[in-house]
Amino acid sequence: MKKAIVALVLAVSIVLTLGIARVAARETPDAVPVTVSGVNYGLLATFAKEELEEADETCAALNALKVTEAKDADGKVIEDLKGKTLHYLPSRAGAALLLGEKHRDQTVDVHGGLYPDAGILAVDGFTVDDDPFGQFPELPIQSMSNQAVI
User: Fold this and answer.
1) pTM of the model
2) So where are the chain's domains?
3) Exposed, middle or buried, 81 (CB in 10 Å: 0-12/13-18/19+)?
């Protein structure tokens, strides 16, 4: 009986040790630094128009990026991504791209990290190419009437 208990305790401890070692060895994938240019588009509006009317507000607002060009940190073009769709990792920096119509159907340049196996883009920052108001600086207000003085 003692031998069976000792064998059982030993077997359980071996299984636990192997399980803990597996969990410890499991690593979070690293993001590859990239700059990606592409068109920001609405997912439901593109792929499921019939469900767009019944979808809740958040689902209807989801966007993704259709890649036209991608470059790694060294400026080398990543040909495999051209024409692919990347999904945004939810973050504060990418919230304006991930949700809403503000930048929908516009060409954007996104700087961030790419998780290539998952097709996910973590946005660190972005610029909008065809923003008609991005080319004009904001004029300072320098009068008592709060109107801009040129």
Assistant:
1) 0.66
2) 32-128
3) buried
